[in-house]
Write a structure and sequence with these properties.
single chain, 296 residues, alpha+beta, Alpha-Beta Plaits, 4-stranded antiparallel beta sheet
Length: 296
Amino acid sequence: MPCRGFAPSSANACLAIADNFDYNITWREGAAFLPAVWPSLHAAILMSGHSKWATTKHKKAVVDAKRGKLFAKLIKNVEVAARTGGGDPAGNPTLYDAIQKAKKSSVPNDNIDRAVKRGSGQEAGGAQYENITYEGYGPGGVAVLVECLTDNRNRAASDVRVAFTRNGGRMADPGSVSYLFNRKGVIVVEKTKDMTEDDVLLAVLDAGAEEVNDLGESFEVISEPHDLVAVRTALQDAGIDYESADAVFLPSSEIDLDEDQARKVLKLVDVLEDSDDVQDVYANFNVSDDIMEKLG
């Protein structure tokens, strides 16, 4: 099955870290809290249908977490969600999902609590982040959307521009790429031995879910963004746990890449994600299983 280009950083990880590690750090410090000895994997791909590459995103998320990148980005999400909608998860679904995502990626509770307090104004030290989306083209004419969450617009723009120009891509004007993507709600449900696709489908059908896809080791539930909370709640009411619930960009069409193009595009995505200001990267490309296996 072909791979559908999708933001690797939205993937969750389950990571065990030594108990004696000092997590009392800011998100910036967290970005470098372990030595840079973990190899950078190619961009993880979220796939529909049955594919042996469905777990790639999880493997990369584990590595990202160990490098501190994922922790830092998840903490920023929590802080911004608290600032935008208040510090009570019960009344702020976005914050609830951000906290759950951080917890499932083994971000320590103390870090999460401090991020909520900074965001809600209960504790000093919170930065003023803003959401910025950049558009561009990668090798092979692949359309790329880059979502940033930054406290320094100039730094973010510079990092993104340099990543594009040094990796065979170019920045594009606003609106020239975004029309190729649709905003969707995506919930990933980890499989259990007693769970079937029908179980998931029955739980979410009346809540606004559009489709349920079997990813091999998990199920993917797709909905409109405004139905995301309702679908997530329906799963919880049915006693079905979920790994992540996010509003993401899915491409409306994809470009098939050969091995050389795939290598270059994956490198571009990887470099973009290395920026502390970049939260998610989306691209409209397909890569066959055979090529992905060669690229490792």
